[in-house]
Amino acid sequence: MKFRLDTFTLLLLGAIVLATFLPVRGDAANALATAGTVAVALLFFLHGAALSREQIVAGATHWRLHIIITAFTFVFFPLMALPINEISRFAPQWMPADLGLGFLYLGVLPSAVSSSIAYTAMAKGNVPAAICSAAASNVFGMMLTPFLLLLLVSTSGDGGFSVAEALKDIVLQLLLPFAVGHGLRPLLGGFLARHETLASRYDKFVIWLIVYSAFSHSVASGLWQNLPLKAILLAIGLCFALLGFFMVLAMFVVRRFGFSLEDEAAVVFCGSKKSLASGLPMAKVLFSGHPGFGMIVLPIMCYNQIQVIVGAMLAQTYRRKIEAASAAAPHSTEQGR
After folding, report:
1. 132 to each of 36, 76, 121, 160, 272, how far by Cα in Å?
2. What pTM did the predictor assign?
3. How many angstroms separate the CA atoms of 156 and 263, rounded?
4. Distance separating alpha carbons of residues 43 and 57, to the nearest angstrom
5. Tens digits of residue pLDDT in 295-316
6. pLDDT tens for residues 57-95?
């Protein structure tokens, strides 16, 4: 099988290069963040309008799938981060203490909401289940992340970030647009069904916007100036290893339980991703004034960029498989979605 980068993956790489040399700053960064918020809200509105009531109920009640995704996010990932942190004790020349702490913090973060759902949609996976799992992960993550971090490492941190604010954002930016879109499904459902390609392109646009905005923030915060090359290369290698391990493990577990290919896509994307959008604001509170703040957030920033690029390629692979299965058995595939 010949490996090649598709157009969308090249566009994502272009977004990273563009953000490296031309990151948005100041008012432009604020405007881009606002545009991203609106774009994500519209994304959920469109998903709500496109999905039938039966699909939504099936996604919300798929409890076995949600348990697996939650276990990956808040149990297995933190446990895998523990040995990495231990390296900083025995080989500090390879793993600085702050970098080890950063990997622990990466491990306890909630799943990335927007990109997880967008990739599941791009792959034609189980979008309702992805929406329920990713949104729930972020709601509970606001409370679980500081608790798990303090449980895993003896550092003091102020857990006084606003849980109420996080809940409000989940409701206003994700759940409310989804509900409104679903309420308007009788008016918009037919149009979206006839223009499925347009909706798919919008999913990709939102992901591109997230990548450029997130990486711009990292670069503007002094990523390349404040961190040594050795630490960056080590972090990148470990992030690739973690992402690859959890994607392969997710595939193995889902197939072991006999889930559909659509469910597998939802678990792989929701269970392996970590939220930069939630991670950086929480890090600013938990590690306020910490001299090694840049090193602590390095794993989050590296992992975010890697999961976006790898996710894009994997989503295209899943899409081809699911479309092929749909062509072979259209009725059974439609019931599973």
Report:
1. 21, 20, 13, 26, 16
2. 0.66
3. 39
4. 19
5. 787 888 789 888 888 888 898 8
6. 655 666 777 888 889 999 999 999 888 888 777 777 677
